[in-house]
Amino acid sequence: MNTFGVALLVVWSLLICAYGIAVLERLTALGLRHFRAAVLLPLAETVALLRQENLVPRGADRLLFHSAPLVALTSIALAALVIPLGPALRGFDPSIGLFYFIVVLGPFVIAMMNAGWSQNSPEGLSGTFRAAACLISYEVPLGFAVIGPVMAAESLSTARIVEAQTGLWYVVWQPLGFLIYAIAALFMTYRRPFDLPQAGSELAGGVLAEYTGARLLLFHIALNALFFLLTAMGVVLFFGGWQGPGLPGPIWFLVKTVALATVLLWGGRFLPRVRHDQMLSLAWKILLPASLVNVALVGILILVFPGEKS
Amino acid sequence: MNGPGLVPYLITSALLFGIGVVGVLSQRNAVMVLMSVEIILNAAILNLIAFWRFVRPDNFDAQVFAIVAVTIGAVEMAAGLGLMLLVFRQRGSTNVDQLQELKL
Amino acid sequence: MSGLIEWILFLALSVLAVGMAASMLVTMSMYRAGLALMSSFVALAGLFILLNADLLAAIQVMMNVGGMLVMVLFMVMLMMDPGGEMMWDMKRKMHMPGPGALSMTMPRGAPPSGKERQHHQMMVDMAMSTAQLPWALALGAASALVLIVLVVRTPWPFSSVQPTQDATGAVGTLLLSRYMLGFEGAAFLILAGIAGAVIFARRERAPTSRPAAATAASGTKIFTCPMHEEVRQSGPGQCPLCGMDLTPATEASVHHGEGGGSA
Amino acid sequence: MLALPLQSDEVPPEPRVEEKALPLPGKQEREIATELMVMSLGPVQPLTAGPLRLLFVCDGEQIVAVQTEAGYAARGVARAMTHATWRESAALASALDPLAPIAGRLAYVSALEQLQHWDPDPSTLHQREALLAFERVENHVSWLVRFAEFLADDRLSITARHFPVRLAEVGAVLWGQSAVEWIVPQSGVLSPLPHTQKRMLEHLAAELVALRGRLEGNRALALRTAGIGLLAADRLRAVGASGPVLHASERRQGDVLSRLLMRLEEAADDLRYAARAAVMPSVAEQGIAPWSAPPGETAVTVAGPRGDIGVSLASDGENMCRVTWRRPSAALLGLIPELLTGQKLADAETIVASLDLAMAEADG
User: Fold this and answer.
1) Of A29, A129, A278, which has the smallest distance from its Cβ to D60's Cβ?
2) Is pLDDT at C206 greater than 50 in this prediction?
3) For all residues of chain C together, what is the average pLDDT?
């Protein structure tokens, strides 16, 4: 299969996914009654952002300012390649697929930091501090949470992890790991209630304070697409991926991902916004020990019921 | 035509090592010195992997060694940065030419 | 054919790795220096992939880009780089010639007197490298040269075997069998590193950092407001007019000329 | 929009900027010994009702100094009243705080009645108090809606949002569209409240009590609001603050959470009071010449939603020659710098919002 075609396909599907997440977010905020508004608002915002002037703040580090949204999108597009949409439907399947996924998302975080730092404003810098603090805290629990499925499937390959869940989804006997993964996913994409690096009128948008127009749009797309990817990876790791009775694999995968994204977005709205130092203590004092307990539990379960891993 | 052999990789590694030495010896900010040390470390790891590939590709000991080296590099960086933070809080600067208290 | 492509990739990646490492020393902003280091690491990871060490490439990117570099950038932002293009702006305003940090070298000789002194002091403050830069350059070049000569002249025992085994599995098996001790040792080292970093970075609340006025506050002193001289009371508290903390009367009158200088 | 009877040479005062140097901490006392950041917020920001500019000087995430610039909403109400007739001044008084028109107007009308030596009968007093209480509740619940937005807590936001709507329904039954017009010197106020509406008010009060009970046990909410923005009761009394902010410091801990709970508690009490008082029959007797006053001086204070709104009037027989307002938000405004200093930047929003400042009233 030619590489160009795959790249084009990935970019298009990411755009559609980002749009889907934007619609979902508005649906959870406005309720099902405003379905039309939820479908149309993201499109209207896109048009509005495209018509907006592309401002570069005075004294900005232009190279980083211009490159940040592109780097973010590129790293997300690369990460999207390893997600198995169906039995034979994926970009490529390296033996260290899951590891690759986490590795490739590293530059995304660097891009967010560059975005905040390059704009030469206290708001952006302060937002960057919050984003970086947030990053340091979620990465370790996220790493430990995905170890559970890897231990059970005895493989880092995403396809193998899905196949290993034919009998039983991992969420059934690794609920703690899934919970940690879900919280870390909300952390990583700055979703509520962890949206402090971006929200709050005191920072006027935080990391993205000075971004306008098309670049801001790119960041919105990147963040939404990243959220979709993380929920999709959550489905792969804990909900059996594309497996399901009757319907073809990709449809099952999509249904599961949308359902999981809805639950995450909707659930996050019912907690007050968490302050950054509370995010840190949540990550280090609760999530990290909990993820270690999860690893130990999974290990014990695998030893006690050797048949489960099939 | 064969691909690049062992020697080109080793030359790259030697160049990286030289740059690292320049950085360690000349940089004024302690964080920059730490970053230069990382370059030296990476030059060494590149050496290890090149030797593994071209001399003993059937023996994976070199990769294990490289992984441990990367780990040690990260630990060194974390401890070093913690130290720098402490120094910065106490002195308000991490410039090595201003931290001369241990000098005779 | 594949050999040619391999050569092209190798040259591009090694030029990138070496060039980025060099530009780390040349750029003026420490934040950008950190990013240059990251690019060098990523190019190195590319070289690892060329050498069939995919696992190590992934580890390289994750450890260095995902973990370490974030620490570096965080540190840099925390310490001095205020964000944006400030250093370039300064350079432009001061009309300094030369590329990047090479123009901001440590001035030599004793500080001049008179009008030049301020400029000299500013150069000292802004310099990215110490006065030993020429020595360092010479030493670096010499060591690289010696290494290259040694590398070229040594007859290396080549092996034409292609690595076939899955490196991930082999390395994992080795780590948990023959090198178990080293593996655990590295884990222990990380633990020690975490503990050390936490102890280093912990903020010490030394008693000396408190303002002397607060520790010296006893009931007998007369306190006054820095803003309102007419406010006088016999203990610490807040000014009824503006709400500022009261300061001891004697110190306040001493420091009055400096305008709100803390004791 | 109110046409202010300003003369052409009467210009509202410029926004006042405090000219004093900010007391900044020395390098030793700071958390991160690096450069300070200055962040500006406003003048138009969602934290206060009306424009207020806030300048934060931050050491990392910690605020080390705050400067406020008020006066963007200054209209010179007191000054304008001395140039207006007694009847026009009633409209001006209700515009002092557009969010609490009844309190301002009632303070003015009561002062006028005192000048006229006209004593309202108890039922009129009760009905006016009921109106005031109702307005306090309306202000408290609409503050709650805004505050829930800052916390980004949708459950609280959804619960809070239906209170203003239902209160407005009751209000429309009681007074038609404009309750303010009911307050006229020497006159009773309102028709008795239908019993169904009374029950609705009592029901809303019970809901508010239940909401308060739930919020008191809500740990997620306490994480964000408890222990920040502490205000001592003595300090509040010293600057002349009153209302729920003072009560929160007197009866509870005085942090943001206690202010939230205090508002809910007072709103429930006020609703019950309004339900009781509003069913009394009105005595509609109109005196002679309500819009004039003999020479004299008087001062009246009524309990507004943000504290006591007071007016002191001096009449020379024809017009007012001196008018001074007591503005509760202005007292709290001066506390913002000391309140925010030492707090985290992320908390500043919640703390300022918890004071419920009405800038139009604070600027006068």
Assistant:
1) A129
2) no
3) 72
CB < 8 Å to C260, chain D? 21, 23-24
- Give the pairing of strands D307-315 and D296-304: antiparallel
pLDDT tens, residue by residue, C139-160:
999 999 999 999 988 888 877 7
Q: How far is D334 from chain C (nearest CA, A)?
A: 9
Q: How many CB atoms lie within 10 A of CB D105?
A: 27
Chain A nearest-CA distance from C167, in A, is 10
Q: How far is it, in rounded angstroms, from Cα A101 to Cα A84?
A: 12
Structure tokens at D247: 């009560």
Residue numbers of C between 45 and 64 with CB closer than 8 Å to A: 54-55, 58, 61-62
Query: What pLDDT is recorded for position C140?
Result: 93
Is residue B22 situated within a structural domain?
Answer: yes
Size of interface B-D (CB pairs under 8 A): 5
Span A172-184, average pLDDT: 90
Q: Give the list of residues 6+ apart from residue A286 with CB closer than 8 angstroms, or none.
A: none
- Complex ipTM: 0.77
Residue of chain D whose alpha carbon sits nearest to that of C240: D238
Which of A192, A174, A195 has the alpha carbon at shortest distance from A295?
A174
Query: Which residue is closest to B85 within chain D, CA to CA?
Result: D32
Between these two residues, C81 and A162, which has the higher pLDDT value? A162
C-alpha–C-alpha distance, residues A199 and A218, integer Å: 18
Q: Which residue of D has its CA nearest to B88?
A: D33
Contact residues, chain B to chain D, C-beta under 8 Å: 88-89, 92
Q: Is B57 inside any structural domain?
A: yes
Which residue is closest to A101 within chain C, CA to CA? C58
What span, in angstroms and rounded, lies between the C-alpha atoms of D294 and D317?
Answer: 4
Give dist(CA A111, CA A69) in Å, integer. 7
CATH code of the domain containing B90:
1.10.287.3510
Q: Do chains A and B touch (3 or more CB pairs under 8 A)?
A: no
Amino acid letter for position A91 = G
C-chain CB neighbours of A96 within 8 Å are: 54-55, 58, 168
Domains of chain D: 31-72+328-364 (no CATH), 75-118+290-326 (no CATH), 121-286 (1.10.645.10)
d(CA D253, CA B67): 55
Q: In this predicted structure, what is the pLDDT of residue A310? A: 44
Reported as a single tens digit per residue, the pLDDT across B47-104 is 999 998 888 888 888 888 888 888 888 888 888 888 887 777 777 777 777 777 665 5
**Tokens of residue B93, six digits:** 């600067």
- Collect all residues from D whose CB is shorter than 8 A from any CB in C: 20-21, 23-26, 28-29, 31-32, 34-35, 60, 235, 238, 334-335, 337-338
How many CB atoms are located within 10 Å of the residue D7 CB? 9
> What part of B 80-99 touches C (C-beta under 8 Å)?
81-86, 88-89, 94, 96-97
pLDDT beyond 80 at C189 = yes
Taking only Cα atoms into account, the Rg of chain A, rounded to an integer number of angstroms, comes to: 19
Q: Taking residues D172-177, what's their average pLDDT?
A: 68
Calculated CA dihedral for residues D281, D286, D290, D293, nearest 10 degrees? -90
The amino acid present at D67, given as its one-letter code, is Q
| Measured distance CA(D248)–CA(D238) in Å, rounded | 16
The chains in contact with chain D, meaning 3 or more Cβ pairs closer than 8 Å, are: A, B, C
- Residue from the list B22, B63, B79 with its beta carbon closest to the beta carbon of C196: B79
